[in-house]
């Protein structure tokens, strides 16, 4: 039997010569795996962060690390985290349900929370977080509440992370959402690969990433295979960019859900999306806001929120086999416990100043645009230009459906949208 996992700490002596000789040092911690799932590697990982989390290097070697308990890492400063191997989370569902860490939004929780300033994570294209999600996907199907089940953890939460970068990480079969980003600012997320495809049953609620109360977040070169939002912007997400990315089988890029907290004012502002390829996604771009009728509490209830989404631009979007309306707005989100009928046009959250320019490819749905907007706060200044969206037989998709959306730009409305409860941008 191998010895328990340990941390090997060394002192790297670095010299740099300018006009005067300057001598500096940087501590390095190499995390060694215990080598079996009977040994929890989380304590050794936490020890490495404690020892080398400030002005140091932390190295995960090309081996498998078994993570059997939660990890909450805060206060990192000027640290390089090198991940070459795989971190594999345990399948003890009851442990995670009872111990996962609060995210601070919608009563969501996480298996791993990481925060600090000037943190540089490099995965080299091989570093992998494996959530063992097949067990979760099978388990959640047997529960009465299959959406946002209390304690079902996100794979990784970047919480209070600033001036940092994550490159070249892979995420496989995340337990729930892959990455939640909250209270984080000035973060680059580049070259991220996510595959939450279930091996035995289809995955659910496996968002690629969600931003919450965060700003200046750059998503570049993402590849996401999943069963829910490819990337989602939620409350107070500002100055976000999503570029040069590929999304498969999920719901597309989402704004929301938002307006879930009664009387709270929230915004989504200044989003730039460019050069995106979608394959078999439900939408390219969709918005989902709660009605003004509060029913229950988050994560699976709520409503009555205030605010707006504004200054959102999307360009060069290419689709293959789109399953639903390409650009849709639904302001009628209401989850468990809500009445079967309700007011779908009373949302106090407004959507305005949205431009989509360059939308081409194939679709299975005739709806290019479907705007089911609030009568209380109508959608304004919605523009869609340069559309070349066709069915597989070459017939052009031609439905532009509008409700409570005055002053559209680039297209003429051809009819009215469906009106009904939705969590996925349509009825």
Description:
The chain is mainly beta and 427 residues long. It is built from three helices and 30 strands. The chain has a 27-stranded mixed β-sheet that branches. The radius of gyration is 22 Å and the shape is globular.
Number of strands: 30
Separation of termini?
57 Å
Task: Quickly count the helices.
Answer: 3
Considering DSSP H and I runs of 4 or more, what fraction of the residues is helical?
under 10%
Structural class category: mainly beta
Low-confidence stretches: 11-24, 337-341
Strand content: over 45%
Query: What overall geometry do the principal axes of the alpha carbons give?
Result: globular
Provide the CATH superfamily of the domain at 252-427.
Single-stranded right-handed beta-helix, Pectin lyase-like
The chain-level mean pLDDT equals 93
- Main beta-sheet strand count, sense and barrel state: 27 strands, mixed
Q: What is the CATH class name of the domain at 252-427?
A: Mainly Beta
């Amino acid at each position: 039997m191998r010895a328990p996992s340990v941390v090997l700490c060394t002192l790297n002596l670095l010299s740099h010569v300018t006009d005067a000789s300057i001598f500096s040092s940087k501590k390095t911690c190499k995390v060694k795996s215990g080598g079996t799932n009977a040994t929890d590697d989380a304590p050794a990982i936490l020890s490495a962060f404690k020892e080398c989390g400030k002005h140091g290097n932390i190295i995960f070697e090309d081996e498998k690390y078994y993570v059997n308990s939660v990890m909450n890492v805060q206060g990192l400063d000027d640290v390089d985290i090198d991940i070459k191997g795989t971190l594999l989370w345990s399948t003890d569902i009851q442990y995670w349900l009872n111990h996962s860490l609060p995210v601070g939004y919608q009563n969501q929780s996480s298996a791993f929370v990481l925060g600090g300033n000037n943190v540089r994570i490099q995965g080299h294209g091989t570093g992998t977080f494996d959530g063992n999600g097949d067990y979760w996907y099978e388990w959640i199907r047997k529960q009465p509440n299959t959406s946002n089940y209390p304690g079902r953890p996100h794979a990784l939460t970047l919480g209070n992370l600033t001036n940092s970068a994550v490159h070249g990480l892979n995420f496989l079969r995340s337990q729930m959402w892959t990455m939640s980003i909250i209270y984080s600012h000035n973060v680059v997320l580049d070259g991220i690969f996510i595959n939450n495809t279930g091996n035995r049953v289809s995955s659910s609620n496996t968002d690629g990433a969600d931003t919450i109360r965060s700003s200046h977040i750059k998503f570049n070169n993402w590849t996401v295979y999943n069963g829910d939002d490819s990337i989602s912007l939620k409350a107070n997400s500002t100055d976000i960019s999503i570029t040069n990315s590929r999304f498969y089988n999920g719901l597309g890029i989402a704004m929301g859900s938002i307006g879930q907290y009664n009387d709270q004012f929230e915004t989504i502002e200044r989003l730039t999306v460019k050069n995106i390829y979608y394959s078999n996604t439900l939408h390219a771009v969709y918005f989902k806001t709660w009605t003004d009728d509060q029913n229950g509490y988050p994560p699976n209830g709520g409503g009555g929120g205030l605010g707006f989404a504004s200054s959102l631009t999307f360009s060069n979007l290419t689709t293959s086999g789109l399953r639903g309306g390409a650009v849709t707005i639904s302001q009628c989100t209401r989850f468990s416990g809500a009445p079967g009928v309700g007011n779908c046009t009373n949302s106090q959250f407004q959507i305005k100043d949205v431009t989509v320019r360059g939308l081409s490819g194939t679709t299975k749905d005739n709806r290019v645009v479907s705007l089911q907007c609030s009568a209380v706060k109508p959608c304004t200044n919605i523009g869609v230009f340069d559309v070349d969206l066709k069915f597989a037989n070459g017939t052009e998709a031609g439905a532009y459906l509008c409700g409570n959306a005055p002053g559209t730009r680039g297209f003429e409305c051809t009819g009215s949208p469906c009106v009904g409860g939705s969590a996925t941008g349509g009825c």
